[in-house]
Specification:
By secondary structure, the protein is an alpha/beta fold. The chain has 6 helices and 5 strands. 47% of the residues lie in helices and 12% in strands.
Length: 128
Amino acid sequence: MRVLLDTCTFLWLALGPERLSPTAVEVINDETNPLFLSDVSSWEIALKWTAQKLPLPESPGTWVPSRRAFFGIEPTQIREAALFRTCDLPTEHMDPFDRLLAAEALEGGYTILSPDVKLDLLGATRVW
């Protein structure tokens, strides 16, 4: 399973792993599951850090890549097809970060690892 980490999942993995569900820990520890972090999540982290809503031990430009490398998580770039796919998603959930993650998951064949049940409204496959 190709696993796209939700922003909160990545943050919890790096800063508070006790918040991860047993299933999430199992998925992350299964070496047959490649793990990915979207540019969407990196951007969300950068915005929250800049707004002083997310304390981190270092600036996001240093911290995110170092945590990705430590946990063996590959970055993914937002593809144009995913941007346009957001237009086709149901409108019951309009959070732009979630919409981009869901569209990226649908376009790239990822399963999103997230506790956010609202992602289900967008048609992406999610586990937690």
